[in-house]
Amino acid sequence: MSATASHASPQRAALPTGDHLTGEVRVPLALYAVDQVQAHVPLVLSRREAEDLLVRLADLLAPSTRLVGVPR
User: Fold this and answer.
1) What's the DSSP call for residue 66?
2) Whole-angstrom distance, CA of residue 14 vs CA of residue 72
3) Which distant-in-sequence residues (6+ apart) come within 8 Å of 54 by Cβ?
4) For 4-63, how does the pLDDT look when each residue is reduced to its tens digit (9 = 90+)?
5) Which residue, 20, 18, 5, is CA-closest to 28?
6) Which of 1, 37, 41, 71 is 20 to 30 A from 8 in CA distance terms?
7) Long-range pairs for 35-38 at CB < 8 Å and ≥24 separation?
């Protein structure tokens, strides 16, 4: 499978789960080659990794008031 033609997406109708004791978070993913499903795998994150990802995603999804091309 070519890296340029492959991608991962959250599995449809599958929700992330978390373990309150360990903090582990599992996000069910579907791996694709172009538009053909190749596999279903969980993305397993530690609590810290999940928190960092959440902060980064929130930053990417927030309306931006910064100028284009100006680094933060």
Assistant:
1) S
2) 35
3) none
4) 789 999 999 999 999 999 999 999 999 999 889 999 999 999 999 999 999 999 999 998
5) 18
6) 71
7) 38/1, 38/6
